[in-house]
Amino acid sequence: MPTFDLEKEICPNGFVFGIDEAGRGPWCGPVVAACVCWPECKIPQDLAEQIDDSKKLTASKRDVLFDKIMASNAYIGIGISSSTEIDEKNILAATFLAMERAVKQAEENFHQKADALLIDGNRLPKNLTIPAKAVIKGDHLSLSIASASIIAKVTRDKLMKELAKTYPQYGWEKNAGYGTKDHIKAIEQYGITSIHRRSYAPIKRFLEGQNVAPVKKGAQEQLSLL
Question: Which range marks the domain in which residue 98 is found?
């Protein structure tokens, strides 16, 4: 279970913001980043025992924890990069931009500068002015990152459900924009929308008149960098 060990290691007496993202792999929609700081590394014990990597939690459990974290004393920021920005900058750069926006929002809303950042993954944004550490599988290890993973995932799922009202054929309320069979079928029948990521290989192939092939499980991350 995640703890505050990494937070205390990187900056024992400071404000450490854990950062995670949701939505690098999907074929459409935004990428969402969230940052969460638990002041003085204090969190209700019952809540700490429930928080985990968002991928390990059911949708209903994520929703409950999202509300509890949002209602807590945590400093929270959310940043979004659109599908247009993803196409213009590439998914990695757009993800880093969303992370920077999340930190900026948290600092402005809570009038508290971050002393250090813990970022899920193995790479850091290039232009950071704050001490930062990339943490592989950070959402398994850090309570701040795990909290951010829940905020980012639930926020993005809500956005995709809203977009699904405008584009009901694609089933985004269920597939969140990933390359599922139903999503592929809809693309082949109705074409792509304004929020599909044209820089992604399957969407490129469709625009070039080729078939949209299903993506094997586990290939979404590599796909998102094409």
Answer: 5-162
